[in-house]
Amino acid sequence: MLAMEKDFDSKLRIQSSNNSSSSTTSSSPSSASSTSSNNTDTGNVPRSKSFAFRAPQENFSIQDFELGKIYGVGSYSKVVRAKKKDTGVVYALKIMDKKFITKENKTAYVKLERIVLDQLDHPGIVRLFFTFQDSFSLYMALESCEGGELFDQITRKGRLSEDDARFYAAEVVDALEYIHNMGLIHRDIKPENLLLTGDGHIKVADFGSVKPMQDSRITVLPNAASDDKACTFVGTAAYVPPEVLNSSPATLGNDLWALGCTLYQMLSGTSPFKDASEWLIFQRIIARDIRFPDYFSDEAKDIIDRLLDVDPSRRPGAGSDGYAALKAHPFFEGVNWKNIRGETPPKLALEPVAQSGEGDHNDESSMNPTNAGDGSVRQSDGNLGASAAEATASVTRLASIESFDSKWQQFLEPGESVVMISMVKKLQKLTSKKVQLILTNKPKLIYVDPAKLLVKGNIIWSDNSNDLSVQVLSPSNFKICTPKKVMSFEDAKQRASQWKKAIENLQNR
Ligand SMILES: Nc1ncnc2c1ncn2[C@@H]1O[C@H](COP(=O)(O)OP(=O)(O)OP(=O)(O)O)[C@@H](O)[C@H]1O
């Protein structure tokens, strides 16, 4: 952890020029909007090995901020609304626990996101203003997106009108054109990572999976590059293109496929390759099994069909004429590409009032910055109407395909399918045991001894959260609570919140 702190420090203090002025001019959201532009010229992007970050590392402490609600919890971070006490400026503070990041080997991802966001300057991309750290945590002060996730808008509205979907898709296209021109592949485009400003404009977020292409204009520090380990993919199951499932290297076509899936989801309310388990989702993707609802216009069907081309180089935006082909598609007719940020956005659907558990926003432990990275329960995840398949498809890795082995089928009845499955550790006071935890659409929740292939426990299902609930303690650790028993589990793939979501979605189905 110390090494990481030093590493961050040294990388952040390479050059002092510009920094003092940038810290006063660029560390507030208002200055961001004045400097933001659609300009894809990278003249202002430092390209040498030694450079000063635009977003400086400040000597702030968490006490300098008044913390508000938790915007959300990621696999290794927590994002909290935070008002700087002296200036009154509101940020989205991304808090990462150093110990956890180091333990989980996420250092390279954190550095990469930091350095990439630092060099991106576009109104459609979440801006990084400054960073700071203390002994326990790293903090990134991001532009606060008060409108929440596009995912929540789709969930609250059921589905979007074609005009509204066109507006959001055009803003995403505009930001993606910039990202691709900078030589980056985002690799996790999906409605959860498309945030909205308070007035309803799109901001692309979550650059933790970003991949710089060979000719990238972005300067990447040593050890900050993301890796593509064999047998894993980066991204989210429901939005992954078929070539990635066949282990082809990432191209910008990945993002265009994901854009097609996202547009489909805006118009229909669900992603195109929806199914009861990741395994089935992958099968659908490989078979390119797409069904368009009747109410999709011909233009919408056509653009989605083209974006979901199995050949990544034929997706509009990936060809030799670049984004011109995508922007000229009849679906986008009438879009004023020169001034899309000047258009009036769709009206935001507001958060439904007080679901149970919503009061946790002010829960002291979740507001305690030293708990950063503890993966406290994601607050308003807006997922109540979403299917369990989609919830479980989120933030999962291809490695889980291997755990979806036919040997688990013997624990299913005919017609029953797996919603979520993980090799987890069942923690007891002094010992821990590896078990296969299996959630099915019945619903049924069992854990199985993986060596003896014996059911070791059947957790009595209840749709009532008083009788069955999941408590997330960290990205990896969670408890399943029933009136008689509390069972603790550790999921090495950090899917604690996904387990919670999957179980709750089945309870709310
Ligand atoms: N700038 C922001 N403004 C408002 N909310 C944000 C902002 N950035 C992130 N969030 C919210 O916080 C949640 C957690 O974000 P974070 O970047 O930590 O992880 P993630 O992208 O959700 O997940 P993962 O790291 O697992 O891919 C997001 O889902 C989003 O809803």
UniProtKB/TrEMBL annotation:
One cellular-component annotation, GO: membrane
Keywords assigned by UniProt, alphabetized: ATP-binding, Cytoplasm, Kinase, Membrane, Nucleotide-binding, Phosphoprotein, Serine/threonine-protein kinase, Transferase
Basic and acidic residues compositional bias, start-end: 1-12
Localization terms from the record: Cytoplasm; Membrane
PANTHER family membership: 3-PHOSPHOINOSITIDE-DEPENDENT PROTEIN KINASE 1-RELATED (PTHR24356:SF163), SERINE/THREONINE-PROTEIN KINASE (PTHR24356)
Organism: Manihot esculenta (Cassava)
SUPFAM superfamilies per UniProt: PH domain-like, Protein kinase-like (PK-like)
UniProt record similarity statement: Belongs to the protein kinase superfamily. AGC Ser/Thr protein kinase family. PDPK1 subfamily.
Family annotation (Pfam families): PH_3, Pkinase
EC class of the enzyme, as a word: transferase
UniProt-annotated stretches for the region Disordered: 1-48, 353-386
Biological process annotations from GO: intracellular signal transduction
Keyword Membrane on entry: yes
Membrane topology classification: Peripheral membrane protein
Taxonomic classification: Eukaryota, Viridiplantae, Streptophyta, Embryophyta, Tracheophyta
Domain Protein kinase: 65-332
Keyword Transferase among UniProt keywords: yes
Segments of skewed composition (Polar residues): 365-382
GO terms of molecular function: ATP binding; protein serine/threonine kinase activity
Ranges of compositional bias, category Low complexity: 16-40
Name listed for the protein in its UniProt record: non-specific serine/threonine protein kinase
Catalytic activity from the UniProt record: L-threonyl-[protein] + ATP = O-phospho-L-threonyl-[protein] + ADP + H(+); L-seryl-[protein] + ATP = O-phospho-L-seryl-[protein] + ADP + H(+)
EC number: 2.7.11.1
